[in-house]
Design goal:
Length: 281
């Protein structure tokens, strides 16, 4: 099984979904973001996320909601660089936790596709989530990911046609990212009613490929709800918000990270309430 897929396999062995936590590198500073990512892995009780999703700030983040846009814009204004994702991967890998990068493709092309794949793998990274890259346009990424053993995580949505969904799922390695709502990222009061159907559609194409569901999860109850039918629960905005609020209020990164840890505790407890009968997952 692929590297990031091992996070799903370990969670499955505990008869629960995996918890995936997103944070952008560089907010409120690069060093603070690395500390925050390490904090994702243990919460306050030594139980944290199973997989860290490292966000690479981009000037035109079409998929990101207001909270993440604010954080990434701030990171860019404070001088974050693509190579800082490599430092983030090293920091997460030092905890024994797998990590992937969520990135818009222009950044990878600018760095050099094979060069980034090589350097990210060497830093301990497991793969890339590429929201604006489709399998039809990913020949260079197929070659580089194969050469350096990285996972390819493409996105499917409720609007994906059967043909598009099948092609995307077959192109994935590790797992597939299912966007449970149409729109941008952001915590919501209710989870998407389209998510269970989308997961079922993916499973019809490939029953063995783990499906992570993102966009909208903000607390443990929602994590348990999503985890009842998905292999992974992806959380971003609810975590990022704690760092944004602490930065804006002048409290400092340590205060934001401390509050973020308590959210991780709630989410980790939530996915453990999502246990299903053995063999159902």
């Amino acid at each position: 099984m692929s590297s990031s897929g091992e996070a799903y396999r370990a969670a499955r062995a505990e008869n629960r979904p995996a918890l995936v936590g997103y944070l952008p590198v560089g907010h409120p500073s690069v060093d603070d973001s690395l500390e925050a990512m390490k904090a994702l892995t243990d919460g306050t009780q030594g139980v944290g996320v199973d997989l860290v999703e490292i966000g690479l700030p981009y000037s035109d983040p079409m998929m990101d909601g207001t909270v993440i846009q604010h954080a990434t814009t701030t990171a860019l204004s404070r001088g974050v660089h693509t190579r800082d994702a490599l430092r983030a991967a090293e920091a997460v890998a030092s905890t024994g936790t797998h990590c992937v990068v969520m990135t818009y493709w222009n950044l990878i092309e600018h760095y050099g596709v094979d060069a980034f794949a090589r350097d990210f793998a060497a830093a301990g990274g497991s793969g890339l989530i590429t929201p604006d890259l489709t399998p039809d346009e990913a020949e260079q990424w197929f070659e580089a990911s194969d050469a350096h053993g990285l996972d390819r995580i493409f996105l499917v949505a409720p609007s994906s046609t059967p043909q598009r969904l099948a092609k995307t799922v077959h192109a994935c390695r590790g797992w597939v990212y299912a966007t449970s709502v149409m729109g941008v990222t952001g915590a919501r009061n209710q989870t998407s009613t389209a998510a269970p159907e989308l997961v079922a559609r993916v499973k019809q194409v490939d029953p063995d490929l783990p499906v992570g569901v993102g966009l909208g999860v903000s607390n443990g109850d929602q994590a348990a709800e999503i985890g009842a039918f998905a292999d992974g629960v992806i959380v971003g905005s609810a975590l990022v918000r704690t760092l944004v609020e602490a930065d804006e209020s002048g409290e400092g990164a340590a205060a934001g990270i401390a509050r973020m840890r308590t959210i991780v505790d709630d989410l980790a407890a939530g996915v453990r309430r999502a246990r299903t009968p053995q063999g159902a997952r």
